[in-house]
Specification:
There is one protein chain. With 559 residues, the chain is mainly β. It has 3 domains: 13-89 and 110-286, Thrombin, subunit H (Beta Barrel); 314-371, no CATH class; 401-468 and 502-548, Thrombin, subunit H. It has helices at 2-13, 125-134, 200-203, 272-278, 280-285, 336-339, 514-527, 541-547; strands spanning 14-21, 33-42, 45-50, 80-87, 111-123, 141-143, 157-162, 187-192, 206-216, 222-225, 237-240, 247-254, 257-259, 262-264, 267-271, 312-317, 320-328, 331-334, 345-349, 360-367, 377-381, 402-407, 418-430, 433-439, 451-454, 460-464, 489-497, 504-513. Strands 22, 23, 24, 25, 26, 27 and 28 form a 7-stranded mixed sheet that branches. Strands 1-2-3-7-5-4 form a 6-stranded antiparallel β-barrel. The chain has a 6-stranded antiparallel beta barrel with strand order 8-9-10-15-12-11. The radius of gyration is 25 Å and the shape is elongated.
């Protein structure tokens, strides 16, 4: 009942926004365009949405996005018609009559349609700076739909709409929280309307669950979440669940992210607090008093007492980098393809509350042969990681169990390790023993070698690695991820790539169960003999076939 009530809160807060030229406009008709929005206030009625939907109606065209200040209504073509589509109280899937008048207060079960006026388009400079910090130009980041054709100059622009039909005498501001207090891995709920106002009776205010994957900028002005959103949800809200009810923390800025040719299964968010600070002048001029955004709220906590981010490290070898999982203050597991260049190893454990970011030298103790199905390397650090709390390895794997992957994929060095959540979708066994784990977590190039962790128990399940199905490395960053299970289940090995089309599937990935690695690690600790890991090179044909992604005879797998 609590979950259902919370879902209704998000759905009643969000809306869809339609932008079109009025029939009597002197300008050639543009659009219509639409996106999602959030009802921030009912006294007065205010809606906040993303600004990119107004691009087709700018008098000066895309060059207007370079302005350092807010754009007022006269910066747009005259005679625009703005409509806000909002669900009536107590309804989940409303029906909208085609001839419904504006601001119709329809009975429960119907969709309300309100006329709106643009107050201003406002740039969020704090978000813009965070974008530059997190997404380097050399890495060819793109944002938008599948073609990723959206103008990147519009990413940090947001629109304020005055909606008289939403005025309520007893109305106030939507419950909010500051993104500055969010932690990586914390749960979020995204709400938006796929395809905007195209088919609101089916898609209005749909929900998606995820976690805070990464943050950047002043007071976390920029956030990435693995909550899956679709084009048209831009302008929708991201909510922090709490015991006192959900609170709005961020606005969806881009539903899809691409890094080069690789689709990154993450959604880009802008902190609501950052937008409000950037909009203070515009709202003051409109006579709107903005309440302060509260800081920390009592969020819903995940199970487990340890912080798994303390087990993650950035591993650099020459021009290649990937992830690793620390098993002890001086012992680290990663993937062979991360360290195979043979250059000096630099290991940077993820910083924590009591641990600063420090670069440590590493020595390669063991690496599997190229012919081994297991892509594993063992590294010993010259110095101990201070304050290290080692992971507890898992012993069993439960398909359907909620899991998380951690590593330096996607953003890499720029913002520290990322976190993505999913479920353990399959446990592949040979002769009754787990030899491969599959998850639905979003995994990206750079995650290889990172830990797979059980969300329920906090145990290490495994590590990410690489399959033998023909994946090809990319300079500077590994393109595959493998997971193995420790009381988290494992270590990330690889995501999936279709070699015939080049398409990458971040939500299908493979991990090495920690149950394979843990006995070998224990033997090495006793003997200090690297040959303790030689068994990884002698895997049987059944294991090799599984990691080739092809158990039946036939043409080579295209995956």
């Amino acid at each position: 009942a609590r979950a259902a009530a919370a879902a209704m809160e998000e759905e009643q807060t969000c809306c869809a926004v339609s932008i079109s030229s009025s029939p009597d406009s002197p300008q050639p008709a543009a659009g219509p365009c639409s996106c999602s929005g959030v009802v921030l206030s009912r006294g007065p009625g205010l809606v906040l949405c993303h600004g990119a939907g107004f691009a087709a109606f700018l008098r000066d065209g895309p060059a207007a996005w370079a302005q350092p200040h807010a754009l007022l209504p006269d910066a747009l073509q005259p005679c625009l018609r703005l409509l806000v589509l909002h669900p009536s109280a107590g309804t989940r899937i409303p029906a909208l009559s085609r001839d419904a008048p504006a601001a119709l207060h329809s009975p429960a079960g119907a969709l309300q349609q309100h006329e709106a006026q643009l107050l201003a388009l406002v740039p969020c400079r704090t978000f813009q700076k965070a974008l530059a910090q997190a997404f380097g130009q050399a890495e060819q980041w793109r944002f938008g739909g599948e073609a990723a054709g959206a103008d990147p100059r519009a990413l940090h622009w947001f629109a304020w709409l005055r909606v008289p039909g939403l005025d309520c005498p007893a109305g106030g501001w939507t419950a909010q929280a500051s993104a500055g207090c969010l932690r990586k891995g914390e749960g979020l709920l995204a709400c938006g309307s796929p395809f905007g106002a195209l088919c609101p009776d089916l898609f209005l205010n749909t929900l998606s669950k995820g976690v805070v994957s990464n943050v950047a900028g002043e007071e976390n002005a920029l956030l990435l979440t693995d909550a899956r959103c679709l084009p048209g949800t831009e302008g929708g809200g991201a909510f922090l669940p709490s015991a006192a009810g959900s609170r709005l923390v961020a606005i969806i800025a881009a539903s899809f992210c691409w890094k080069g040719a690789e689709w990154v299964g993450l959604t880009l968010l802008c902190s609501l607090a950052a937008i409000l600070r950037s909009s203070a002048g515009v709202l003051h001029a409109a006579g709107v008093a903005v309440p302060p955004v509260p800081g920390r709220v009592a969020a819903v906590q995940a199970a487990g007492g340890q912080d798994p981010l303390g087990w993650v490290a950035l591993v650099e070898c020459g021009g290649t980098w990937g992830s690793g999982v620390l098993l002890s203050p001086r012992l680290l597991l990663t993937c062979r393809h991360v360290v195979e260049a043979g250059d000096p190893l630099c290991v940077t454990p993820a910083p924590g509350p009591s641990r600063a970011s420090t670069v440590l030298s590493g020595r390669l103790v063991f690496a599997t042969e190229e012919s081994s199905p297991f892509d594993v390397a063992v590294v010993e650090l010259q110095d101990s990681v201070p304050g290290f709390d080692p992971p507890r390895p898992a012993h069993t794997f439960l398909p359907g169990e909620e899991v998380r992957v951690m590593g330096f994929g996607a953003l890499g060095r720029a913002c520290g390790p990322s976190v993505t959540a999913g479920v353990l979708s399959a446990v592949v066994t040979v002769a009754g023993r787990p030899v491969m784990l599959q998850t639905t977590c979003a995994v990206h190039g750079g995650s290889s070698g990172g830990p797979l962790v059980s969300s329920r128990s906090g145990r290490l399940l495994g590590k990410l690695g690489v399959s033998r199905g023909g994946c090809v490395g990319v300079p500077r960053m590994d393109t595959m991820t493998r997971v193995s299970l420790l009381s988290p289940p494992g270590i990330v090995a690889s995501n999936t790539r279709d070699t015939s089309t080049g398409a990458t599937y971040p939500h299908l990935n493979f991990c090495i169960p920690i149950t394979i690695l843990q006995p070998l690690v224990a033997r090495y600790r006793r003997t200090r003999d690297p040959n303790a890991f030689a068994k990884l090179n002698r895997a049987g044909e059944g294991v090799r076939a599984a990691w080739r992604l092809q158990r039946q005879p036939g043409p080579p797998s295209k995956l």
